[in-house]
């Protein structure tokens, strides 16, 4: 963690946490994980209140998810104008979101967090029910905030190591999901081009 980031967390505390968690859920590149870890660490040293930091981080994340979902819902008409294969893909995405969307939203909040902002837009744009999205968003963000603020609090003296471990785990999980999805797509494409009896 840089000294500049530490100074920002100490001086702007709850406002910085709120803004960072909100913006990160809209795919704005903010070092939110480090900010939450730092907030937890400063809470361990009584510079910030642990429960206030966690509450504000959760509020910012949930509001950011709602904003992303709302933007996706607002721009859904752009998806409806698609033709051909794109329209078929969007139809499959809507069906998948309706059938499996909730667990996907939940896991993209914390385990596959790099995918989270894009899941917000897709969930809104493909017509996922708002109540379903909101429930799984709240549950997932609760895990995310608890994990990062809690880890910062518990391992305040080893913050950089914890940040590296959590960042690598999240990135690896997101990479695995992308690899699996790409593999499935390639398999389907190759199966579609195979001739019977080949």
Gyration radius, rounded = 19 Å
What is the tally of helical segments? 8
* Main sheet record: none
**Low-pLDDT windows of residues:** none
What is the approximate shape? Answer: elongated
Order of helices and strands: HHHHHHHH
Percent in strands: under 5%
End-to-end Cα distance: 57 Å
How much helical structure, as a percent, in the residues? over 70%
Question: Strand pairing plus helix content: what structural class?
Answer: mainly alpha
What is the domain tally?
1
**β-strand number:** 0
Tell me about this structure:
The protein has 198 residues and is mostly helical. It has one domain (3-193). The chain is built from eight helices and no strands. The protein has helices at 3-24, 32-44, 50-74, 76-80, 84-110, 116-125, 130-154, 159-193. The longest helix has 35 residues, at 159-193. The radius of gyration is 19 Å and the shape is elongated. The model has no long low-confidence stretch (mean pLDDT 81).
């Amino acid at each position: 963690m840089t000294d500049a980031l530490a100074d920002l967390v100490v001086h702007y505390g709850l406002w910085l946490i709120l803004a960072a968690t909100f913006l990160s859920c809209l795919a704005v590149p903010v070092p939110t994980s480090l900010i939450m870890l730092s907030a937890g660490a400063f809470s361990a040293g009584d510079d910030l209140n642990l429960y206030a930091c966690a509450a504000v981080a959760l509020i910012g994340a949930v509001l950011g998810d709602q904003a992303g979902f709302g933007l996706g819902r607002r721009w859904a008409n752009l998806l409806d104008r698609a033709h051909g294969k794109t329209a078929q893909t969007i139809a499959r995405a809507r069906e998948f979101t309706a059938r499996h969307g909730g667990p996907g939203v939940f896991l993209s909040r914390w385990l596959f967090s790099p995918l989270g902002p894009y899941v917000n837009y897709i969930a809104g744009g493909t017509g996922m029910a708002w109540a379903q999205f909101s429930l799984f968003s709240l549950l997932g963000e609760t895990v995310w905030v608890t994990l990062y603020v809690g880890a910062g609090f518990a391992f305040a003296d080893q913050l950089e190591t914890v940040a590296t471990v959590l960042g690598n785990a999240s990135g690896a999980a997101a990479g695995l999901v992308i690899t699996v999805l790409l593999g499935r797509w390639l398999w389907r494409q190759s199966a579609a081009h195979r001739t019977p009896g080949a």
